[in-house]
Amino acid sequence: MVEKSWVHLNIADPGYERGAREFVTCVGAYIAESELIICPCADCRNVDRHSAGVVFDHLVTRGMDLSYKLREDWYHHGEVVSGAGCRSDASDRNKEILGLYQAAEFLDEDFVRQRDVSEVAEGEDKEEDEFLAMLADAETPLYPSCANHSKLSVIVSLFRIKTESGWSDMSFDRLLETLPQMLPEDNVLHTSLYEVKRFLKSFDIGYEKIHACVNDCCLFRKELEKLDNCPKCNASRWKINMRTGDVKKGIPPKVLRYFPIIPLLKRMFRSEDMAKDLRWHFSNKSTDGKSRHPVDSVTWDQMNDKYPSFAAEERNLRLGLSTDGFNPFSMKNVNYSCWPVLLVNYNMSPEKCMKEENIMLSLLIPGPTQPGNNIDVYLAPLIEDLNLLWEKGEVTYDAFS
């Protein structure tokens, strides 16, 4: 069993400092000299990487992250062994474990040769700077002395009224041309629908249109992307004129809309408040035996026991999937149903996880009939992204840490 008693000492205790130094020395023995060490201090929390000296300083000044301190295995560091002989006597098993975790953390040699970890961080920093600049522009007051309305709030309010009231594009354009003339001269309101759409598009994650077989056999994507007929039932990919039999190439009868979840989940962590909310499940398990949230369930505990490394990171996401058909038209005599596929984020508290703004639309499966047992065909893009997140993860900016 690995000696870890030093982490429970006061950080001012000489024994704590000796243990921290030994820990850093042992970790350094497993990795290349040029590589940085995952820092388990209370602030970095196994996210940031630093040199051995910085990691040691963090441990003796900040202490170790509580959840990691209490673990039986320090999986981010290959279950480091103590003692002077740790460099030469470390088991191959520990080296293998550390290699696997380094690969999962994008530190394997093949990945580093293709793209240095620092380059990934620089890319994230650049993306974050652009996002913050975009937010700053959106939060600009409508005019300098305006305290109640920002550029974004006014545009969203006007655009909502346009949509709900059925205004034509021309009438909305004219409104935008007129309103700035009624405001102070240095206002920042856009003066055309084109400018408004371009501004709103900068916040839009977008969605993918994927052609589907009219009989729900397949999606025309990847190796099937260039086919004109379904490889299973031979149905045409394109609409057919029922009177003449002519194929209307370029006009699909069935289109799946996929709203990519990875950009959406990454954007959640860019909000400090939401990034904090996503950690709720980690420290709010019921202590009185009552079930108030899925975190209190037996299934949740079984998941933690089966995948301890996944459970140890509080920012890992747990999603619930739900779908049901509905008629999008107001006419009850129209026999049509489409199927939205929703994701519920169980990381959040019961009060927040079921709020409308926190439920994510991932897929919109077209009608007119229910997909039935072929729903797995339509779930494929979503499942692929979920598998990608499970197997490799995704580097992102965390506004809370």
What percent of the residues sit in helical stretches (DSSP H or I)? 40-55%
Strand order of the largest sheet: 3-6-9-8-7
Let me know the number of strands: 9
| Cα separation of the termini | 32 Å
Question: DSSP strand (E) fraction?
Answer: 5-15%
SS content category: alpha+beta
Give an overview in words.
The protein has helices at residues 14-30, 52-62, 66-69, 86-89, 92-104, 109-114, 117-138, 151-165, 169-182, 193-201, 261-268, 272-277, 298-306, 308-312, 350-353, 375-391, and strands at 37-38, 49-50, 208-211, 239-240, 247-248, 255-258, 319-323, 339-345, 359-365. 17% of the residues are buried. It has 401 residues and is of the alpha+beta class. 41% of the residues lie in helices and 9% in strands. The radius of gyration is 27 Å and the shape is globular. The chain has three domains: 5-114, no CATH class; 121-201, no CATH class; 259-391, no CATH class. The strands form three sheets. A five-stranded antiparallel sheet has the order 3-6-9-8-7, with helices on one face. Strands 1-2 form a two-stranded antiparallel sheet. The chain is built from 16 helices and nine strands.
What is the compact description of this entry?
With 401 residues, the chain is an alpha+beta fold.
Outline the secondary-structure elements.
Elements: H1 14-30, E1 37-38, E2 49-50, H2 52-62, H3 66-69, H4 86-89, H5 92-104, H6 109-114, H7 117-138, H8 151-165, H9 169-182, H10 193-201, E3 208-211, E4 239-240, E5 247-248, E6 255-258, H11 261-268, H12 272-277, H13 298-306, H14 308-312, E7 319-323, E8 339-345, H15 350-353, E9 359-365, H16 375-391
Antiparallel strand pairs: 1-2, 3-6, 4-5, 6-9, 7-8, 8-9
Helix pairs in contact: 1-2
